[in-house]
Write a structure and sequence with these properties.
binds nicotinamide-adenine-dinucleotide; Rossmann fold; alpha/beta; 7-stranded parallel beta sheet; 15% strand
């Protein structure tokens, strides 16, 4: 039997797709929203603060692409379901959801106050379940879809003192990615994530102020922090039709930071 011919389709890769990117106002979410829109998707920028969210939408439109803003707090379960249903009703379909918004911060293991821990578990972990539960009926109706999650190397691979809660939340989403991928594979819905290392975003400001971007970059084999677009382009592949056979996976985007047994080789 002759082999199937290999076809490579030149972009744009996401024409006609409807995407939601949470935490799309800044950093990795903003870059991902802009890259998906540049590839032809209509992108709903779903974020908590209106100003940065509108800036992302303005950038999408200034580039001649299509997007809209939806202000949402991902800690609000009812709001997440209402948002997803309203997007699917308005556009008649839903193809791509990127769960990217996250609560970050220090929660030492000796801490008794649960406030930050609860916020991290709500937004980072439960938000992932809510978005998926809300989106999958619409994706099934459309014959498939892409659930994409911003995880982290922090938790699944490495950690830092004070990062127990954040690490637990990112380890949890990696478990979710595998289980959800198994459950949804038969519907043509893939579930994948990206594990960023140090990416130069507003969310990294505290780290940069404390240690300095150059010093952090020195210990990354690439030699500098990553750009939000580095993560966005990994998501683009996972969002594409060409990634139909990739599911339950995470791609590490960290400039090689996870490779060395110890950072001393750089000193
Ligand atoms: N920057 C890094 O080095 C890095 C590394 C690993 C993982 N990550 C992950 O990447 C994702 C994005 O991080 P970033 O550095 O771009 O962050 P950022 O702080 O630069 O941007 C986060 C965006 O999410 C929005 N947001 C925060 N809480 C929200 C909520 N409850 N509901 C809706 N929107 C909310 C913010 O308004 C902002 O627009 C997060 O999941 C984070 O854990 C980042």
């Amino acid at each position: 039997m002759p082999e199937k011919p290999i076809t490579h389709r030149a972009g744009p890769r996401l024409t006609g797709k409807i995407a939601i990117v949470t935490g799309g106002g800044k950093g990795i979410g903003s870059a991902t929203a802009q890259v998906l829109a540049a590839e032809g998707a209509h992108v709903v920028v779903a974020t908590r603060t209106e100003g940065p969210g509108q800036e992302t939408v303005d950038a999408i439109k200034a580039a001649g692409n299509s997007g809209e803003l939806l202000v949402i707090d991902m800690a609000d379960k009812d709001a997440v379901f209402a948002m997803v249903d309203s997007v699917a009703a308005k556009h008649g379909r839903l193809d791509i959801v990127v769960h990217n918004a996250a609560v970050m911060g220090r929660h030492p293991v000796t801490e008794r106050d649960d406030t930050l821990l609860d916020a991290m578990l709500a937004v980072n972990v439960k938000g992932c379940f809510w978005l998926s539960a809300a989106a999958t009926p619409h994706m099934k109706a459309g014959g498939g879809g892409r659930l994409l999650i911003t995880s982290s190397v922090t938790g699944p691979r490495v950690t830092m003192p004070g990062s127990g809660a954040y690490s637990a939340s990112k380890g949890a989403v990696n478990g979710f990615i595998k289980a959800a991928a198994l459950e949804l594979a038969e519907f043509g819905i893939t579930v994948n994530g990206v594990e960023p290392g140090y990416i130069d975003t507003p969310g990294l400001t505290r780290m940069k102020t404390r240690y300095g971007a150059d010093r952090i970059g020195h210990f990354i084999p690439y030699g500098a922090l990553g750009d939000p677009a580095d993560v966005a382009h990994a998501f683009l592949f996972l969002a594409s039709d060409e990634a139909k056979f990739v599911t339950g996976q995470t791609i590490i985007v960290d400039g090689g930071a996870m490779l060395a047994e110890s950072p001393v080789w750089k000193e």
